[in-house]
Amino acid sequence: MENPVGSLGEMVADVARKYDDHPALIIRPSFRTRTWRYRDLGTVVPRAARVLVDAGLGPGDRAIIWAVNRPEWGIGFLAVAHAGGVSVPLDARHTNEFAAKVAAQTEAKLVLASRQTAEGARSLGLPIVWIETLPDNARRSEPLSPATVRSDDLAEIVFTSGTTGEPKGAMISHGNLLACAGAMAHVFPFSRDERLLSVLPLSHLYEQVIGLITPLLAGASVVYPVSRQPAVLLRSFRDFRISMLLIVPQGLRLLDRTIERRIDESGRRAMFERLHRLARRAPQPVRRLLFRPVLARLGGRLRTIGVGASALDVDLGQRWTEMGLDVLQGYGATEMSPVVSFTRPSDNRLGTVGQAIPGVEIRIAADGEILARGPNRFQGYWRNPAATAAAIDSEGWYHTGDLGELTRDGFLSIRGRKKDMLALPDGQKVYPEDVEAVLATDDRVKDAAVVGWPLGPDLKVHAVLLLDDPAAADPIVWDANLRLAAHQQIRGVTVWPDEDFPRTHTLKVRKHEVLARLATLAGAATAGEGAGAGSGAAMGSIAIARAGDGSEVDPLVQLIAQTTNLPVAAITSSARLSSDLNLDSLQRVELLGVIEEELGAYIDDDALDPEATVAELDAMVEAARGTTHESGIYGWPLNPAVRAVGLGFQVAIMGPLVRVFYRVRTTGAERLDGLEGPVLFIPNHCLHTDNAVILSRLPVGWRWKLSAAAAADTIYGNPIQGVLASVLANAFPLRREGGVRHSLELLGARLDRGFNILLYPEGMLTLGGPMQPFKPGVGLIAIEGATPIVPLKIKINQMSFLDARGSPLRGDLEVVFGEPIRFDADADPVAATSQLEEAVRAL
Q1: Which residues contact 565 (CB under 8 A, 6 or more apart)?
Q2: Which of 744, 779, 761, 757 is CA-nearest to residue 31?
Q3: Distances 321 to 222, 272, 286, 345, 507 between C-alpha atoms, Å
Q4: Using CA atoms, how far apart are residues 292 and 629, in angstroms rounded to an integer?
Q5: 8 A C-beta contact, residue 339 and residue 279
Q6: What is the rounded distance in angstroms from the CA atom of residue 710 to the CA atom of residue 693?
Q7: If DSSP codes are grouped into helix, strand and coil, which group holds residue 326?
Q8: Closest residue by Cα to residue 184 from 249, 244, 241, 242
């Protein structure tokens, strides 16, 4: 398909003009939601490109992006393109060894990293640009003129993951990415009203193209959750009214289990199943009405789920379809940038991966292999002409290595792999030869074949070993897993019962026969006919120490056993979550969600080490147990009618009264000119009438969207006083000590809605002065608020009778506005507090 723009840089400039102040990228890292509008992208990307150029990036140079999902990931990626560089994205879970190979192959000039990948990034020995502070550094930089970039110029190199040999890097051009994104904008119902929740790694083209570039082309909004924990995702659905989700099958199953668990807890399972039976014959609007309570837990707007990376179980897809959602499934490869086909809302056939996307051709070769070509087909493998020639034939067809069938009307079904790459349920790809190479270095192993087993939605990496000593199987796997990446971990092992594997005439292992034999062994084990000791067969999961002391089962152990499908006796205190209990990343997220629901302990998945022991997890649960979360934003004072009453009072009554009792001069108000809010005003607290004086000096436009933070223990300790403060000053309660989480959420909710905040950082009134030290939390609010802070000082020349008995009727004051201050995301809160205090004192 033709695109109106030829490069990613042109795309940014184009969408900034088209969609202006519409939200583009959204994240809520703490109490404040940070939003980059489309026009913000048009401003920040050229400036971020300048930061990268100053760090050593030139046209055509490669920049590794090794970071977690955040809006700044996309900003960094687009900045590399703007500068004419080439991005090399790495999964945050990649090993240091793999990253070093990629850096060496590409001769990378720098790395964009996040806090979570800091150790690995430093090991590369390259200049580092931290994505969390990239926008802050960009704000202080001059914009860079866009590099001259053609559609067929390289935009990125995406490498296959492995641990042995040299990884292959697929070369993807600007035109490849834009062709695929433009096509997907016609497949998915993208519009300006859509909000997509981004949960898959941006280093993978599936999320990068459909979850970032395509929404930007369409003017939609992308929301980044700070955790994949089910409770956090459900809250994100509700808070941001998500309408679209891209996910892998295992992630959808995890979400499904979370919903069904809550159905069971409410005792409504029978009703839930009855609604499913009714929905099968109902049109979509009726289905959404039947499941309205369930959809409400997902924010009420979710309509489209796009599934990719591995096969979707038809029954699972049908369940979600019955709830009134479009569950679309696609097929593709990195080499196709990455989409070949996708089902459409208008013709969605579960069990297929849909028809070719616009501009792409599909052909089935004589041996059943799927061939594809189109404007999104990659340019070849980085500095690997032999691999390129093997993948792309003389007619331009990319040979996918997958087997499939096409119906007469063009619907594609996948029948398996021509080669034996494993597509795991969580979307990760594992190349068996990489795992086999690690096993081959163990002298105890005569030979090894790695396959995906069991077949179907629970497929795992399974090692089949030829051994002289079958008892060595578990130690061999243990040692191998220490050298393998998290997604490559061997989750099951079988000792082959014969003297050798079945082989071809070239001595290659016939893996389809190995899989057939595993099925036979599994059937025999199920029937109680397991292989005898004399056969040398051993099949199943890695052996784990047994507890078995007969004591009462700990609730945490029960939850782990339910999540892992292991016997309770296998869950020992020293068992490690990943290596011993086979919990992959999504299963750990599911476990934490269950812990929060069942045990009342909230633990973020970033805080949990994959190799943590059960005992360490138990300690974390005990530390977090019983935490409760207040909810609601105390929103009624934000109602325009209430604000109109308050502003009317300020203009008609409060302002004239201030002029009766005080002569007030204003200095520095021009510093507000051109300042884009919301703004945090931080004055000293020296008069009973501080609020009235400050509000009377602020222009009406600033006051219309201003909320004052008032002490929860004093002002709101009196209900009548609290209501009056809320109406007349649009105030909200702020706790000065103790649990302040909910207070910060109230503050953040107002900033998110564009309200300026009036906050007294001393936390107490000192009538007439002197100024007291600022509360230590002020710096944190200033940093996490990610908004300009305006120091403000009331200078007392003469107090009024209104504030101090015995003083003249009319006092004399000066209100001084200071220069706005902004803090970087990595600023030190203690230092920020000191800087703000000094700024107010100096006025």
Answers
A1: none
A2: 744
A3: 23, 14, 12, 11, 47
A4: 25
A5: no
A6: 16
A7: strand
A8: 244
The rounded distance, in Å, linking the Cα atoms of 506 and 504 is: 5
Cα(668)–Cα(670) distance, rounded to whole angstroms? 5
Burial of 668 (0-12, 13-18, 19+ CB in 10 A): middle
Length of the chain measured in residues: 843
Q: Tell me, what's the pLDDT at 629?
A: 54
Q: Which strand (E) or helix (H) includes residue 684?
A: none
Specify whether the CB–CB gap between 106 and 124 falls below 8 A: no
Q: Which residue has the tokens 């000593």?
A: 469
Helix/strand/coil for 725: helix
Closest CA to 785 of 26, 21, 31: 31
The model's pTM: 0.80
Q: Residue 665: what pLDDT?
A: 95
Kindly report the backbone phi and psi dihedral angles of residue 422, in degrees, each rounded to the nearest multiple of 5, phi listed first.
-100, 125
Domains by residue range for the chain, with CATH: 444-541 (3.30.300.30), 555-624 (1.10.1200.10), 636-841 (3.40.1130.10)
Distance (Å, rounded) from C-alpha 466 to C-alpha 727?
Answer: 78
**Helix (H, G, I), strand (E, B), or coil: what is residue 222?**
strand
> Over the chain (843 residues), what is each successive 10-residue block's mean pLDDT?
79 97 93 94 98 97 96 98 98 90 96 94 97 95 96 95 70 98 93 94 95 97 85 84 91 84 87 94 95 92 91 89 96 95 93 95 93 97 95 96 92 80 82 85 90 87 93 93 90 91 72 88 62 34 33 74 76 89 72 72 75 90 70 85 94 93 94 92 94 92 92 86 92 74 83 94 89 90 92 95 89 96 91 96 94
Tokens at 545, concatenated? 């120490």
Q: In Å, what is the CA distance from 466 to each residue of 472, 482, 499, 508?
A: 11, 20, 8, 14
Q: How far apart are CA 827 and CA 600, in angstroms?
A: 33
Q: Which of 82, 41, 92, 77 shows the shortest CA–CA distance to 156?
A: 77
Both tokens of 751, joined, read 């900033």
d(CA 54, CA 539): 57
| Integer Cα distance of 163 and 197 in angstroms | 31
Pairing status of strand 221-224 against strand 244-247: unpaired
CA 732 to chain centre: 31
pLDDT at 427: 79
State how far the Cα of 75 lies from the Cα of 49, in Å rounded to an integer. 9
Q: Which DSSP category does 47 fall into?
A: H
Q: List Cα–Cα distances, 530 to 515, 518, 536, in angstroms.
A: 17, 12, 11
Distance CA 236, CA 232 (A): 6
pLDDT for 533 equals 29
- End-to-end Cα distance, the chain: 60
CA dist., res. 411 & res. 447, Å (int): 41
Using the 8-state DSSP alphabet, how is residue 652 labeled? I
DSSP 115: G
Structure-token pair, residue 253: 């199953």
* CB-CB contact of 174 with 151 (8 Å): yes
Q: 837 and 831 in contact (C-beta within 8 Å)?
A: no
Residues 110 and 129 sit within 8 Å (Cβ to Cβ): yes
Two structure tokens written together for 744: 């910060």
Report residue 88 as tokens: 């090399």
Cβ count near 558 (within 10 Å): 14
Sequence-separated (6 or more) residues with CB below 8 Å from residue 135: 36, 44, 48, 72, 75, 825
Mode of pairing for the β-strands spanning 326-332 and 304-307: parallel
pLDDT of residue 599: 75
Identity (one letter) of the amino acid at 33? T
Q: What pLDDT, on a 0 to 100 scale, did the predictor assign at position 630?
A: 56
Give residue 304's pLDDT: 96
